[in-house]
Amino acid sequence: MARLFVFSALALLLLSACCWAQEEEDLSVSELLERANMNLVRSVDEPNLREGDIAVDEEAERNADPCTSRGCKWGKSSDGKVYIPYYINRQFSSREKSIITRGLESFSSFSCIRFRPSRSSDRDWLSIESQNGCWSYVGRRGGKQVVSLSRQGCLYHGTVQHELLHALGFNHEQTRSDRDNHIRVLLQNVVSGMQHNFNKIATLNQGTPYDYNSVMQYHKYAFSKNNQPTMLPIPNPNVSFGNAKEMSRNDIARLNTLYKCCESLVTRSS
Questions:
Q1: Is 24 a catalytic residue?
Q2: How far apart, in Å, do the first and last CA atoms of the chain sit?
Q3: Count of H-run helices and E-run strands, the chain
Q4: Distance between CA atoms of 54 and 74, rounded to whole angstroms?
């Protein structure tokens, strides 16, 4: 009887874990990020976060202009590729490392971005660590640059791509300079003190249209205090958005435009 009870309890535990994992797999990137970063207690040596997962050193950087206009893109090699060194912290298991590596390697299939393991001679590199939550700085900062992918809630293909896009210089879709033509922000539904997360930025949109399906677009209830929408599409409020689980075609197009990947391909083929 005791053995039967132990077996039943174990089976129930495994079933519960399976259902939880399946539930997380069904969530969009923005929902996963919000869940992973909810109610985090920041330590004194960790950066402040704006918009949920963008790391900033000082409060004054909340409304900073796009870093790419200040020269924080990663440099291009003579072969037309952009090689970005990275180091994956030993905190991660082999399975977790494979998820991160898959996200890193995905960029080589649609752009000139090449993430490669760091070397002792590298001056700038990404240090991928499991800190509190999922977050990244925007663009190249110089030296060791942390990208946090917490083992609790951040290890999904889309969230890896999302944080890497920040590191490459991209902000969230809902903060685009032309946001008000496509999204209506309902500040009355936003958690008190979180309104700054919806401030627009003078973004460089790379000639691409506003993309409701971008992996950088947050969902309609982001930062909601009352389970009411904080964002609604214009002109049709019923349009679905913020559901991406990986990079969209427009995400890829603006990445290739910013880093002039297509230009490199044309030059090399001519």
A1: no
A2: 76
A3: 6, 9
A4: 18
DSSP designation for 44: T
Q: For residue 78, is pLDDT > 70?
A: yes
105 contacts: CB under 8 Å, gap ≥ 6: 115
Cα–Cα distances in angstroms (integers) from residue 267 to residues 113, 227, 255, 260, in the given order: 16, 51, 18, 11
> What does the pLDDT look like over 202-234, one tens digit per residue?
887 878 899 999 999 999 999 999 999 999 999
- Name every residue whose Cβ is closer than 8 Å to that of residue 153 and which is 6 or more positions away in sequence: 24, 32, 35, 36, 133, 134
Tokens of 12: 């129930």
Q: Are 265 and 76 in contact (CB under 8 A)?
A: no
Catalytic entry in 163, 173, 246, 263: 163
DSSP bridge partners of 125 = 144
User: Measured in whole angstroms, how far is the alpha carbon of residue 163 from the centre of its chain?
Assistant: 3
Stretch 20-28: mean pLDDT: 62
What's the whole-model pTM score?
A: 0.84
Nearest to 241 by CA among 176, 155, 192, 196: 176
Where residue 89 falls among pLDDT bands split at 50, 70, 90?
very high
Using DSSP, state whether 100 is helix, strand or coil: helix
Structure tokens at 186: 């309902």
For residue 143, pLDDT over 70 is answered with yes
The string of DSSP letters for 156-170 reads SHHHHHHHHHHHHT-
Peptide bond into 235 cis (omega under 30): yes
* Residue that the structure tokens 């349009």 belong to: 239
Give me the phi and psi of 74, to 5 degrees please: -80, 140
CB distance 117 to 87 below 8 Å: yes
95: tokens are 């399975």
